[in-house]
Amino acid sequence: MELRDGAGRLITYLRLSITDRCNLRCVYCMPEDGYKLCAHDDVLSLEEFTLCVNRFVSLFGINKVRLTGGEPLIKRNIEFLINNLANNPGIDDLAITTNGILLAEKGRPIFDAGMRRINVSLDTLNHDRFHRITRVGNLDDSLKGLQAAKEIGFSPIKINTVLLPGFDEEAQMIEWANREGFQIRFIELMPSLPLDIDISNGNAPRMPDILRSLSESFSDIEKLDDNSSDAGNHTTKYRIPSNNWTFEFIPAITNPFCMHCNRIRLNCEGMLRYCLYSNKTMQIRPLLEKSDDEFKTAIQDFVSRKNGRVSDHIASYMFSIGG
Ligand code: SAM
Ligand code: SF4
To answer: Is the CB of 96 within 6 Å of ligand 1?
Structure first.
């Protein structure tokens, strides 16, 4: 009743990219001149997503599911899917990654449907930089969404901050997040298809750059032991005892976590992908009508081809794979 890949890694975590549509256009995620969206007829219905997840849970013991996209909160009737997943007793950890823009409006319905854990992507607290990164967004909408999420009672609320060229807000963002009760994680930018990421001059900073810069202001930064029981936990945690602040990194480049990978991804067209860096996919829709045994054999066969990392670049745009 378990799913192991070709390197023997146990797969327990399914990430669902439920739409490729988005209300932002982040420079590191989407090409500026548009992109071809999936045709509506090709997008899995919420019933099909539910069926897939239920089978992964019952046949393989998948116990962690994350909704992502594109922007998941623009998906019509997302509450229906969340409610189905929240009522599946095999799922211990149900979470969503969102840009937060629609949280003021959709936070309450998704909370009532059973969502509790939320990651909000926010790369800056500067209005002008926010607009330049997202091309169309307004920082106030994101901050309003976060306040709403706090009032509604989501917990934990994690902030995903991608480290982009010109980033120098680490101290300010750590202070802000800790005061607000959010867990902040700095994510190293992963190379993807050629994109316009020249936010300002310089290279994208990485974990050692941020730690070096923080150590100029704080003399007591401590690395925390990882007590997490989650084998696929990819974060490196730090604390600043003088302020009792914590922060984390997802050091995708400095300290690649491939050997601990426990993930598999399903996108909105029903393409199953076992690695961000691989362009090997399998269409899952025809399998939904097959017996449990046939479903199981086909998935196991596909996942057994997952082995080491095959490329330095993410295989497609992040919005279409589901970051
Ligand atoms: N729209 C939602 C959001 O932005 O949170 C969910 C989808 S987005 C593709 C998921 C995550 O991927 C976001 O936290 C985003 O910052 C991250 N991401 C996108 N492109 C990335 C890249 N090249 N390197 C690292 N993280 C990336
Ligand atoms: Fe949209 Fe998220 Fe990609 Fe930004 S990172 S363009 S919000 S999918």
So the answer is: no
Q: Tens digit of pLDDT for each residue in 109-131?
A: 999 999 999 999 999 999 999 99
Max CA pair span of the chain: 60
User: Best substitution site from 162, 184, 257 to test ligand 1's pocket, by max atoms within 8 Å of Cβ?
Assistant: 162
Ligand nearest to the CA of 72: 1
CB 143 within 8 A of CB 168: no
| Cα 68 to ligand 2 centre (Å) | 10
Q: Which residues of 85-115 are buried (b: 16+ CB within 10 A; e: fewer)?
A: bbebeebeebbbbbbbbbbbebbeebbebbb
> Strands 117-121 and 13-17: what pairing?
unpaired
Q: Which atom of ligand 1 is nearest to the CA of 314?
A: 23
The two tokens of residue 271 are 């393409």
Other beta carbons within 10 angstroms of residue 147's beta carbon come to 14
Q: Which residue, chain included where needed, has tokens 């989650």? A: 230
Q: What angle in degrees, to the nearest 10, is found between the helix axes of 139-152 and 103-113?
A: 30
Q: How far is ligand 1, taken at its centre, from the CA of residue 96, in Å?
A: 12
From 26, 28, 163, 199, give the residue whose CB has the most ligand 2 atoms within 8 Å, as the site to mutate. Answer: 26
Please tell me the pTM assigned to this model: 0.95
**C-beta separation of 122 from 147 below 8 A:** no
13-320 classified as CATH 3.40.50.1370: no
Binding site membership of 30 for ligand 1 (Cβ less than 6 Å) = no
Per-residue pLDDT of 164-196, as tens digits, reads: 999 999 999 999 999 999 999 999 998 877 677
